[in-house]
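Obj: model holo form, ligand = zinc ion.
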Amino acid sequence: MVITCQVLLKCSATFPGKPPTMKDALQLCVDAHKDELHSLSRDIWTRPELAGDETHAHDRLVRFFSQDQTWTVDGHYKLPTAFRASWGPVGGGGGEGEPALNVGFLCEYDALPGIGHGCGHNLIAEAGAAAAVGLKAALQIHTELPVPVKITVLGTPAEEDIGGKIDLINAGAFSDVDLVFMAHPAQQDVSFLPCVAVSVKYHGKASHASAYPWEGVNALDAAVLAYNNLSALRQQLKPEWRLHGIIKHGGVKPNIIPAYTELEFYMRTPQIRDLCNLKAKAEACFRAAAVATGCQVEISYPTHDYYDILPNTALANLYENNGKALGIQFPEQPANFSGSTDFGNVSYEVPGIHPFFYIGTDALNHTEEYTEAAGTAAQLFTLRTAKALAMTAVDVVCCPALLQQVREDFRLAKLKLEKLLAP
Ligand SMILES: [Zn+2]
Ligand SMILES: [Zn+2]
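Output (holo structure tokens):
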């Protein structure tokens, strides 16, 4: 933190008065667009769409950026409901072929089955758009930047289900991005966990449940035994590990011995290396139920694994300083709450931050009360967060030493993890 502040002071001396002026410009710009940004967020909130089906949200965001012709907008970018909006570069020494520093902001916009925007992803879309528009305003008033800077907004679908960011990483969408920013609504500060989804299918044999039950092989018994095995296992798991799921398919009729059942479970641990351990324990529970009932079992991992978020101390400290300047109160002792995000995987590709922001309700994510708050009271908090993200980007693009520090934090965090994972 001390090093960060000293570096900032040095930069202010090199470019006297300029970073604060840029921050003023970005705040004014976000405020000037607040009705438009609110309407964007409300439109997405009013028509909630599930992971991968976010066509309305995609079109709405593409329209938002396309109305300002200085943005280059690619709809359906690499995935059907992803998009990219790019602006710049500006600044730098003007040398031919001088590489630009590409600052990325991410928008999520998928909703949850049954409860709409109970995770507030409409606000993530709004915050990403607001931060990008704000940073653009800041860069426009000060093009004598040490390096050329451009902005990329990526619309990243399907966070709640398949992990759209991981598909985008695999498709190369992050390969030219240097820094990445997003923020997620929460009722408190949150530490996110790596997550994996497992699908388990039991195949038995149907038979009349009253006339010839002995002819059947009961796949529902296998599912119930597996569920109970996992419940027993849970007592022996570390307190911060999570294992939770549903019986997705439980049979078709009470008088038919179920020939097919399906379970879906999520597993989470704070460190990736523990996730392998938990997966092995859970698989033993699933297989034991198959052995006990005589069913065949199929175990598969249909979505990507979600990684933990690689911390970037330099960016986190800058964000906190900017947030405090805007009136955000960061708790001394962040509360512990478990969730997962595909931003974790992004954080292994590009230095970035994913702070959490209070939206004026004590309701919990993934509840109807949270959905209500995400569509009503959240504006002040969302735009304040967007400003803090863009101000953090201003700090880094104005100061090569800070950029170097951010990159060094990224390198060291990855190195530390590689050592932890080494056999
Ligand atoms: Zn979420
Ligand atoms: Zn969620």
